[in-house]
Amino acid sequence: MQPDQFTAKFVTSGTQSSQVMESFLSEWRWGNVEHIPLTEDNSHSLNVTKKGEKSVLFFVCDAEEKSAALLESLIAQWSDVHVPMIILFGDTVRTKKIRRQFSSIPVIRDENIISIADSLSLKTVIEVWVRSATVPSCIGVDFADYHAWASNGSIFVSAGMDEVNDCELPYRLYQHYPTHHRVNDKDYTVAGVVLVVTGSNQSINLDLFSACGSMLQGCCSDDILQILDVNFHDDEPIGFRLFMALEESREQSGLFLQELIKRANR
Description:
Layout: E1 7-13, H1 15-27, E2 33-37, E3 55-62, H2 65-75, E4 86-89, H3 92-102, E5 113-116, H4 119-134, H5 143-150, E6 155-161, H6 169-175, E7 180-183, E8 186-199, H7 206-219, E9 225-232, E10 239-248, H8 250-264
Parallel strand pairs: 1-2, 1-3, 3-4, 4-5, 8-9
Antiparallel strand pairs: 6-10, 7-8, 8-10
Helix pairs in contact: 1-4, 6-7
């Protein structure tokens, strides 16, 4: 690990959350990520942080009572510690119920809880958090910016290229940025986008970074949250990752509401 890098520690509570986290780790090749499954055996004695260690802590919890109770038992031991981000993983009905349950715990802030329903979205948000935590931004982007992005969507998707010619990068970015998405027979639009340019600090220069920022701005309307960041990895070619927070199309939501009104008036 380089001196300016942190370790992203993910405490998972529940089988589904743990499986998604392990799936992410099997594809992540840059290290600096630790998965700590929470169990009945370790929930009362787990020490997730060490003195002097550079780490950032996250929680991922299945939206069911047993997993939530395990996480509560761990957090209850940290009355003087600010609890960071928590992802509740499950359908809308269950996440709302567990969210209300967590609201009674003083150290948990409701605005620090994000609800995610599908595994692809969960892996996308995990990757964004890992990139924000393990490689400190050199341009002033912080975790509050990433949290604002995650709070903007209900579905999360990613795209990108691991290696691209630097002259082609802005155009490739344009190619990989669809403004509309079709997910499970519903239309979604982009509500927030994170662009991370990747490569070594020798390969990424200010002109290239600025060109990518200009292309991103040109792709997005003014109401779309845009975050531009860079991840330096030694001996890595230039590439990019796009992370999009999607919201259900307003036009589609309006049509759905009109249909409900029609049915009510029949």
